[in-house]
Specification:
By secondary structure, the chain is mainly α. It has helices at about 1-30, 35-60, 65-90, 105-125. Helices cover about 85% and strands about 0% of the residues. The longest helix has 30 residues, at about 65-90. The chain is flat and about 45 Å long.
Length: about 130
């Protein structure tokens, strides 16, 4: 179990670093369309590998740990919906200038919401 946790953390770190590097390269360097597609595809592949690994690890958890994970994902989902709803409603108001908010700023918030959900769930089942 400990080895699986370490591998999951390693995969999450690899994806996070690759994502940050990809954003930097795509924003700051003039890359061709082909290179951009390859960079984006690599990020999708890394996220897919991490996701498959995470789902496989669920089969190794006991019922309480599965419940904690499910509750964390549920909390993250509701917080994500709230964020997207608020941003969508703000966009409708002419006085607010939120056109410059990129999806890239919203994407990391989803992971933050999952961590918030984990903290809440862990405290509940301690």
């Amino acid at each position: 179990m400990e080895r699986n946790n370490r591998l999951s953390v390693l995969l999450a770190l690899i994806f996070s670093m690759a994502f940050a590097l990809s954003v930097y390269v795509l924003v700051n360097d003039a890359v061709s369309s082909t290179a951009a597609v390859i960079i984006i595809g690599l990020n999708v592949l890394l996220l897919g590998i991490y996701t498959v690994r995470l789902i496989r690890n669920f089969s190794l958890l006991d019922e309480v740990q599965i419940r904690i994970q499910l509750e964390a994902v549920s909390i993250a989902f509701v917080l994500s919906l709230a964020l997207v709803m608020v941003l969508g409603l703000i966009e409708l108001v002419d006085g607010f200038k939120v056109d410059h908010i990129s999806h890239l700023y919203v994407f990391p918030a989803f992971f933050l919401f999952y961590l918030i959900g984990l903290i809440i769930s862990h405290r509940k089942y301690r």
